Structure formats: C-alpha cells, structure tokens
Amino acid sequence: MAPGCLLRGNTVIERFAGEFKCGKDRVTLERPDKNRPDFFRATGCNRRASYQCSGDYGEFCERIGQPETINPEGGALPSMPSLPNPDAPASTSPPKDKPEAAPAAP
Predict the structure, then answer these.
(1) Can you tell me the distance from the alpha carbon of 72 to that of 8, in angstroms, rounded to the nearest whole number?
(2) What is the pLDDT of residues 36-53, one digit of tens each?
(3) What is the pLDDT of residue 58?
(4) How far apart, in whole angstroms, are the C-alpha atoms of residue 101 and residue 38?
(5) Cβ atoms of 40 and 51 closer than 8 Å
(6) What DSSP string runs through 45-56?
(7) Euclidean distance between the first and final Cα of the chain, in Å?
C-alpha cells in the first residue's frame, strides 16, 4: 500500500462523520477510480459524498460537489395512512357505533 493511503481513508471517514453527524463505524469508504488514488466516495447515514485528498500523506481531504441523499436500506419509505377523500359523497347514514340523535324537543 502506498504511503498515506491509510491516512487518506481515515481522514475521509473523519470528515464525513463530522459533516453528516454520522458515527465513524457507520461510514463505508470506496475508491471508485483506481487511477485516481486520492479520490474517495464515503457512504453512511443515508448520505453519500466524494472527497479529493492532497498533501504528502493525504492528510488534506475536501468534499467535491454536493452530497447525495440515498434511499434507506429498506427501499421506499413507509406509506402514509390514507386520508378521507374530500371529493367523495358524504354518507347520509349515522355511524354504526353511535345511536341516532333524537329530534329536538318542541
């Protein structure tokens, strides 16, 4: 492993964890382009960001571009309970769990 590779990875993980308030143990790191050893992609806590490192040991890492929000591991978010349709015709019968109201006394 080239000098600084380990330090670069640790620097990226620390930056990502600090920027996105994500525990270091929840951050995964990848090097998507083997021809660019100073380029990293970090993922964790439903976020993903790219970093470029510099310095003799890769100790300076800056985020490149805007971070992405990724889908939760479970896929789509749970659906919301459906609300009554305001365009549906109103029901004329009283609710089954309540007795009909008595007419007002004369």
Answers:
(1) 27
(2) 989 999 999 999 999 999
(3) 75
(4) 76
(5) yes
(6) TTEEEEEEEEST
(7) 95
Distance CA 28, CA 57 (A): 20
The span from the CA of 74 to the CA of 13, in Å, is 24
Q: How far apart are CA 84 and CA 29, in angstroms?
A: 46
51-84 tens-digit pLDDT: 999 888 778 899 999 999 987 555 544 444 444 5
Nearest CA-CA partner of 24 in 42, 8, 2: 42
Collapsed DSSP state (helix, strand, coil) of residue 10: helix
In contact, 22 and 44? CB cutoff 8 Å: yes
Q: Which residues contact 74 (CB under 8 A, 6 or more apart)?
A: none
- With a cut of 70, say whether residue 93 has pLDDT above it: no
DSSP class per residue in 18-72: HHHT--GGG-EEE-S-TT-TTEEEEEETTEEEEEEEESTTS-EEEEEEEEEE---
